[in-house]
Fold this sequence. Notes:
Structural class: alpha/beta
Oligomer: single chain
Shape: globular
Helix content: 25-40%
Distance between the termini: 55 Å
Number of strands: 10
Largest sheet: 6 strands, parallel
Strand order of the largest sheet: 7-6-5-8-9-10
Number of helices: 11
Amino acid sequence: xxxxxxDFYFFNLxxxxxxKESYSNFFDVYLKKFNQELxxxxxxxxxxxxxxxxxxxxxxxxxxVSTQHGVNREINYTCDEGMxxxxxxxxxxxxxxxxxxxxxxxxxxxxxxxxxxxxxAEQLSSKKRIDLFLGKKKxxxxxxxxxxxxxxxxxxxxxxxxxxxxxxxxxxxxxxKVSKKIVFKTYPAIPLYVEKDPVFEEVNKSKNxxxxxxxxxxxxxxxxxxLIITSRATSTLSWCILSNVPVVFINYIDQSMLKKEIITKLxxxxxxxxxxxRNFFSxxxxxxxxxxxxxxxxxxxxxxxxxxxxEQYISSSQKKKSGEVASNYIIxxxxxxx
Length: 338
């Protein structure tokens, strides 16, 4: 078995290196077409295609710029597992969302490029979001459960089956027992198993739960939410906090868990629950039974601490448009090839 695993690993490694070499030959010819000012931009350059492009650009002294793929390394305890795939290990300049990302990214031993803080894109701001929905707002559970199978980094030590069981317990022990309507939004991932998802099956059988299985981005639903419940230290949490809708966060200790040093700060910023706590299910159910007015009053009390948290860990320089900051930096520093 051990030999089969090693053979599988090296087979895939060779496949990826061959792919990179193929792209390298392509870009060697393709880039000869350009003699004018040139700058390349990517949102996730740590792939065989973009690594090959980066190497060719470097020889031609052309800059490769990247934007931060998502807010994760700032808050996620297991983020170091994917450190070799961070953008500034490939690009010359990385535009990051916040101060913490700059600190963490530049500490990476794979770091090649510099980092510039520009904040998050304007469309993620709740003030700029357009939604013509006029119906009654509902509680949304925004799932971050992703089936890893054999294609993704683990971000912890649970198998897909164990993660499904955890979420199933959440549905049966809390959501089904709450006397309120809850929309269960699935994570927009490609199904990897032929079996039907047991969690989705249970949601479909529940009278007070509506399954929203869509790849549509969560930001288009914020105006329809009275309360957001989500989990795991991923970008989803950050976008939920920026929505200005009250957020309940569930922290797992065995997958995509929060960094220990920010737990206290986050508890002061939103409604925080540990899945591993002895009375987790009863405490969460009791909280969800509170009136919307009561929840919103408690949410407002956390506003000052939440703004501090956002500035450090999610979106710094919020008073400036990130697009303008980035473009002005590129022009000022003459990053275009002459």
